[in-house]
Every structure is written in structure tokens, then in C-alpha cells.
């Protein structure tokens, strides 16, 4: 109801004809009518007021004023039901616009949408806004679902996306999360372009930009990760690479220099006909000629086993995906890589721990301009690996495992023979043995294991992680200049389990805990009955131990129930 109508209604009410106590009827000089209850010769109680222009109010009155819960019905059949103060919609109420098929349910102030409420733009409620309002405008925190299926969740200002928010463009399979201004990305943000690629595509099936935006354009500093696996990290101007930047091709070749209007200012070949993939072997071979010979041999090996290597990458990429990350299952995570190494039983057969493998790979990134983060996050389970990264990790790990082993070979030597032996000895058997049908029992076990992992991580992951980080420290073999190479030993984990009274003399004995460690990733922890408590344990192994402890308790309780039932 408009303020002019309110003033006129009040003026006319005081021109009433004589009325009575109780229920009655009056008709004003201008033709407006009232039916209902009176109190002290004034409209008070429940009644119905009809304006000459067709507007109708039904509900509570007090001292000749509309106050309380009531219903407005306009001539065009629009309706409002809810709280009213002095003729004005104030409080909680529902408004229905039958002509435009919209309805609003929520808070009002001074006759306008103010506070929290839901505005539905169609009868089915497929398009709606739910959140905060200020004077009929979306303002504050809110969620907007568009008729296209697109969804925005975040901050609003004067009916515009402004502040921090996430936009899911479901009609074109894209999403943006970051800061906005005037309905456009502005400030820091991440944009993801998902691509329609085959399910068995070995590359991440998306393009991603993370960095600065200005009025909806990439502008400033940002990192673009291409679906091919290539990466650009540098300056942007008007959606173009422009300024100082570094480009790493999907094959590992690097351009570090100046870009102008999306092009390099110096010649650059992201691909080499002689060596398709480039791997950094500088820590192993100082001589450039030797490095090039090894690169050529490594590329030959990759081409020879390309199908098997890519199949393994794809298979493990889809195990236990992290649904909370924007990357989802587009590229292999360290967690998934560690699962592969666990299945290969490398720790058992070579007496090398997962920590040593991570350190071997991380060393090659120390001091690298863009890739230095891999040196500092060497034990981060959410770190991602492109297909090239996957090859490079396995190459360096194979050298760690077999460089001191005599391996007969006719065609290869050095790191190349180690990599070839690693593929044939460790990877190919696991690739052949993990082909599982969709209805197999193994699949059901995998699904159950994934659910248990997810449940424990969701409920207790942060607590366990905080405990680990609080007690972790640098060891003798740690990369001291790496921020992320602080770990715990087996002995430290045992002390933590004792501190939290997890160890006991019946279900979870010290020997059972040691057995769990000896099975997963830690070779030699129990050799001939002699316990070695000096093995380092990263957070991932600590967490897996908690899961195995959980399983042990469940199995014990299950057997106890069966035993009591039989007895």
C-alpha cells in the first residue's frame, strides 16, 4: 500500500459516520467501506476495509488503524498476507504477484523488502533469490538461481553482485569464485572452464585462471592452467598475456620472458621433435650431453608404454576424489599417487619410504621461479600432478629405488634403465591386477573404503591435522629450507596414541599398531621382532593409521556381537 493511500485512508477514517461498540458497518463519504468489530467507537479487532479503487484489507485493526496480522488484496488480484503496522507492511509476510507469477516470503520494513526473504520468479520456483534485502533490492548475502539453471551465491549490493561470491554457469559448464563489482569479476578470483572431453582423456578436462580481474577481464597478475597441462604464470592485459611471464608447456618446456598481446617476444618451441617431453635431470647429470641422451631414452620409454602409463594415471585419478576442491578429479592428486605407490608395494620391495620419494621429487624444484611451491608442499595430499608431472615424479622415484641396483639392459643405461625397470617391475603388474568389473566385490570394498575415508576426514580430519602440525618438526633427513618438510616419527605417533588413551591391552595393543604401520608405506618397522621407531611419518600415513584403527575397532565389536549371540 502506497503512502499517499495511507494518508487518504487515515483522513477518511476520521470522517466516519456514527458507529457502535461490537460488530458493525460504516461507509465513508468517499465511498470506502468497513465491516467488522468496533472498540470505543473506533475500528478495533477483526474487520474488512474496502477502498473505492478496489483495494481490500482483511485482518486486525487497532484505534482506527490497520495494525497486526492481515491480508491486502489489490484490484489486479495481487495479495499480501502478514504483519502490518499503521497501514504499512512491516515484519514477516508473503506477497503474491499473480500477473507476473512472482511471490515473496520474508521480512518487510516501511512497505519494502527489507531483511531476509525469498523471491520466486516463477510458479514452480525454479528461478528465485534467497537472502538479504534492503529497500526492495538484493543487498547483503544471498543466493540467486536463474531460469537458465545458473547459480550465484555470495555478496550483493544495490541489486548487483558485489563483494565475494561464486557463480556457476551451468548452461555453459563454467564457474567463477572470487570478488565481484557491478555484476562483473573484479579483484582476486578463480575461473574454471570445463570442457566436453572424453572420460578417458589423460589431461585435466578444464581450463583454469586464478588471479586478478578488472571489470570482467583478466588484468594484472594471474596463473592460467590449460586443459593440455600447460601453465602460464605472469602479467595480463585486457584478457591477454602481456608483460613478464613464464610459460610451461604440457611437455615440460619452459619460456621465461616477455609477452606482448598474447605472444612471446622471443622464439619458443613448446615441443621438440627429438624429445617430446622435457624433464629436469640437472641434479643427476651435470653434463648437458649426458642429460640429452637420457632425455631421448626416457622419451622412447614413455612412447613405448604410453598406453599403460596413461591408463594408470586415469585409473588412480578417479580414486577418492576431493569433492571440496575446485579441481575435483580433473588431475591426479598426491593422495591418489600415494595410493598407487601403496598398491605397487614399493616400500616393501625396495625399503624406501614415501617420505624419501617425495623428497627426491621435491629437490628438483628448489629455487624454481614458478614451481618452487612443489618444494615447499612436498607432502600436501591435495597437490595436483599433470600427466607430465606424473611421468617426472615416477622417473625420479625410479632412480631413487634402482640407481644402486644392477639391472641388465641392452638399450638403456642410467636413469632410463631405472625408469624402464620400474615400469616393468612395479607398474605393469599393478595395472594388470587392478582391472575390476563394475559389479565385483572388490568395487564394493573400494566404495566402502572411500566412504569410511570420507566420513572420518569430514568429521575428524581437521582435528587430526591440527594435532599432527602442532607436534611436527624437522628431522635429520628433512629438507630444512622447505616449509612443508616437518614430520613425525613412529615414536611420536605412538606417544600421541598413548596421550589420547587409544592404546590398550586388548583391542589396540602396541603390536597391532606397529603391524598397521608395517603394512602401509613403512618398510622395516618390524624386522625379526625388533621395532624401529625412527621412521618418519607424514600426515597422510598418520591419517590412514586412524582409519585402520577405526576398522579394527569395528571388526572387534562385530565379532563380539556374534560371540555373544552364539553364547
Q: C-alpha Rg, in Å?
A: 34 Å
In whole angstroms, the N-to-C terminal distance is 77 Å
Number of strands: 27
Major beta sheet summary? 21 strands, antiparallel
Q: Shape, please?
A: elongated
Helix content: 25-40%
* Count of helical stretches: 13
Beta-strand content = 25-35%
What's the mean pLDDT score? 84
Which stretches of 5+ consecutive residues score pLDDT under 50? 13-17, 323-327, 435-448
Category by helix and strand content: alpha+beta
Notes on the protein architecture:
- The longest helix has 31 residues, at 441-471.
- The strands form four sheets. The chain has a 21-stranded antiparallel beta sheet, with helices on one face.
- Mean pLDDT is 84; it is low at 13-17, 323-327 and 435-448.
- Helices cover 33% and strands 32% of the residues.
- Among the domains are: 1-99, Histone H3 K4-specific methyltransferase SET7/9 N-terminal domain (Single Sheet); 288-435, no CATH class; 447-566, no CATH class.
- Strand 3 (42-50) and strand 4 form a beta hairpin.
- Helix 2 (288-304) runs parallel beside helix 9 (414-433), helix 3 (306-317) packs across helix 9 (414-433) and helix 6 (354-362) crosses helix 8 (387-402).
- It contains 13 helices and 27 strands.
- It is an alpha+beta fold.
- This is Histone H3 K4-specific methyltransferase SET7/9 N-terminal domain-containing protein.
- InterPro entries: MORN.
- The chain crosses the membrane at residues 537-566.
Amino acid at each position: 500500500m502506497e503512502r499517499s493511500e495511507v494518508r487518504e485512508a487515515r483522513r477518511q477514517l476520521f470522517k466516519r459516520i456514527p458507529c457502535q461498540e461490537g460488530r458493525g458497518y460504516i461507509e465513508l463519504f468517499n465511498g470506502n467501506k468497513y465491516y467488522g468489530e468496533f472498540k470505543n467507537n473506533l475500528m478495533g479487532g477483526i474487520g474488512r476495509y474496502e477502498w473505492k479503487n478496489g483495494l481490500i484489507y482483511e485482518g486486525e485493526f487497532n484505534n482506527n488503524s490497520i495494525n497486526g496480522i492481515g491480508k491486502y488484496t489489490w484490484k489486479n488480484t495481487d495479495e499480501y498476507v502478514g504483519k502490518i503496522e499503521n497501514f504499512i507492511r512491516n515484519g514477516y509476510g508473503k506477497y503474491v504477484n499473480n500477473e507476473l507469477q512472482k511471490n515473496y516470503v520474508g521480512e518487510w520494513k516501511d512497505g519494502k523488502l527489507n531483511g531476509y526473504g525469498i523471491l520466486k520468479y516463477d510458479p514452480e520456483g525454479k528461478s528465485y533469490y534467497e537472502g538479504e534485502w534492503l529497500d526492495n533490492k538484493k543487498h547483503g548475502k544471498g543466493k540467486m538461481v536463474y531460469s537458465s539453471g545458473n547459480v550465484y551465491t555470495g555478496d550483493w549490493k544495490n541489486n548487483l553482485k558485489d563483494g565475494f561470491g561464486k557463480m556457476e554457469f551451468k548452461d555453459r559448464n563454467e564457474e567463477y569464485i572470487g570478488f565481484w563489482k557491478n555484476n562483473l569479476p573484479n579483484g582476486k578470483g578463480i575461473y574454471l572452464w570445463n570442457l566436453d572431453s572424453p572420460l578417458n582423456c589423460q589431461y585435466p578436462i578444464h581450463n583454469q585462471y586464478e588471479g586478478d580481474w578488472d571489470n570482467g577481464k583478466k588484468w594484472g597478475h594471474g596463473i592460467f592452467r590449460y586443459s593440455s597441462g600447460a601453465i602460464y604464470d605472469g602479467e595480463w592485459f585486457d584478457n591477454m598475456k602481456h608483460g613478464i611471464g613464464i610459460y610451461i608447456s604440457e611437455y615440460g618446456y619452459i619460456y621465461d620472458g616477455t609477452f606482448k598481446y598474447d605472444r612471446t617476444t622471443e622464439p619458443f618451441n613448446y615441443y621438440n621433435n627429438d624429445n617430446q617431453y622435457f624433464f629436469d635431470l640437472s641434479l643427476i647429470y651435470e653434463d648437458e650431453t649426458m642429460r640429452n641422451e637420457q632425455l631421448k631414452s626416457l622419451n622412447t620409454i614413455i612412447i613405448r608404454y604410453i598406453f599403460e602409463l596413461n591408463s594408470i594415471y586415469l585409473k588412480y585419478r578417479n580414486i577418492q576424489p576431493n569433492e571440496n576442491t575446485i579441481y575435483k578429479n580433473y588431475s591426479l592428486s598426491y593422495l591418489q599417487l600415494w595410493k598407487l605407490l601403496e598398491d605397487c608395494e614399493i616400500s616393501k620391495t625396495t625399503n624406501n619410504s614415501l617420505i624419501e620419494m617425495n623428497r627426491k621429487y621435491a629437490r628438483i624444484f628448489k629455487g624454481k621461479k614458478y614451481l618452487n611451491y612443489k618444494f615447499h608442499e612436498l607432502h600436501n595430499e591435495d597437490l595436483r600432478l599433470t600427466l607430465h608431472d606424473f611421468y617426472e615424479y615416477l622417473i625420479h622415484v625410479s632412480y631413487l629405488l634402482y640407481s644402486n641396483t644392477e639391472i641388465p639392459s641392452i638399450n638403456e643405461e642410467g636413469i632410463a634403465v631405472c625408469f624402464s625397470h620400474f615400469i616393468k617391475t612395479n607398474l605393469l603388474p599393478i595395472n594388470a591386477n587392478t582391472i575390476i568389473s563394475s559389479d565385483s566385490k572388490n568395487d564394493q570394498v573400494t566404495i566402502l573404503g572411500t566412504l569410511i575415508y570420507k566420513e572420518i576426514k569430514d568429521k575428524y580430519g581437521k582435528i587430526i591435522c591440527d594435532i599432527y602440525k602442532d607436534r611436527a618438526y624437522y628431522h635429520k633427513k628433512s629438507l630444512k629450507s622447505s616449509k612443508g618438510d616437518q614430520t613425525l616419527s613412529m615414536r611420536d605417533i605412538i606417544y600421541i596414541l598413548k596421550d589420547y588413551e587409544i592404546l590398550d591391552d586388548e583391542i589396540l595393543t602396541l603390536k597391532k599398531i606397529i603391524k598397521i604401520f608395517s603394512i602401509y608405506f613403512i618398510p622395516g618397522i618390524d624386522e625379526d621382532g625388533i621395532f624401529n621407531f625412527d621412521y618418519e611419518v607424514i600426515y597422510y600415513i598418520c591419517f590412514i593409521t586412524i582409519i585402520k584403527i577405526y576398522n579394527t575397532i569395528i571388526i572387534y565389536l562385530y565379532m563380539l556381537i556374534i560371540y555373544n549371540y552364539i553364547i
